[in-house]
Amino acid sequence: MSDTDQVAVPPQLQMLPMLLGFEASQALYVAAKLDLATILSNGPVPIARLAAETKADPDALERIIRFLATIGVFRTEDGQVEVTELGLTLADGRPESLRYAAIYWMESHYTAFSDLLHTALTGEPAFERHYGRPFFDWISADPERVEVQNRMCLNMNTAVRAGMFDGYRLPDGAVVADLGGADGASLVHLLAGHPDRGGILFDRAEVVGAARANLAEHGLAERVRCVAGDFFESVPAADIYLLSYILHDWDDRSCLRILRNIAKAADSGARLVLVEAVLPPGDIPHPVRGMDLTMLALVSGRERNADQFRELLDAAGFTLDQVIPSSTSVNFVEATLR
């Protein structure tokens, strides 16, 4: 039988694994939380020993591992468990690790999505209905959640967005303010090789402590000031403003508050660099479409296309200069304050 003669998979059989996707995501969460891939990274281990080391029920753990083996995460044979190359993406301390992404998404996103129907009917974030308060308030209320979020960001920057800044040069300007800059990873990349530039890491008080340590580790403690604050209230003066994955968290009205605070603090001619995914036209598969659904369910934000960015920036007094693609799924949206 030729390839063209093969029977197509009926649509109902295509739909089934999508409907059961929650099983895979939760089983992967268990593997990440128990750190199975890290334990197995040095070689196969008997299931009984793995269960003892992780304080798991042997029968339950074996059945979860057996399921994950069917999707290529582990291999099992004669009571032994071996991690695959795919499974190693859940091992801690590796450049390709997504372990904390798995933990963060399942502990902060997963149950909120059970109220997605509420969002569809009302337009209100499912997260707020489920947890009773806004997403970022819920995260910041618990230092452990903040730590997991920081580690997730590090995972994503290292494993998925590695090389994002390769070949990109910031516009001219002596001081770069990274608003919502988390651990300072973006400034580390962008200030490398530019000793004439200084920086400001601006984020919430519970975040900037971790940033100081990271910046010091990369020799930037003297060149980058860490400032705690709220970009909805005010921002420090700078020549260039960097916002990485910030505006997509907020609706247009909230974004305008941030952008107008930048306009108040900066001189005309100041440059703005947004690191954001830009929605492509049509139904082309793209990671940004899944992210847009996340923004819908968790916060008031959204992903935007180039025209939407242009309109938003114009309303705040900025002129969109260009959209520069990167080697990843995100773009650099550059604008100038009029």
UniProtKB/TrEMBL annotation:
It comes from the Bacteria. The active site is at H248. SUPFAM superfamilies: S-adenosyl-L-methionine-dependent methyltransferases (SSF53335), Winged helix' DNA-binding domain (SSF46785). InterPro entries: COMT-like, COMT_C, COMT_dimerisation, SAM-dependent_MTases_sf, WH-like_DNA-bd_sf, WH_DNA-bd_sf. The keyword Nucleotide-binding does not apply. Pfam families: Dimerisation (PF08100), Methyltransf_2 (PF00891). GO terms for biological process: methylation. One of its GO terms (molecular function) is O-methyltransferase activity. Residues 117-318 form the O-methyltransferase C-terminal domain. Keywords: Methyltransferase, S-adenosyl-L-methionine, Transferase. Residues 19-85 form the O-methyltransferase dimerisation domain. This is Methyltransferase. It comes from Actinospica durhamensis.
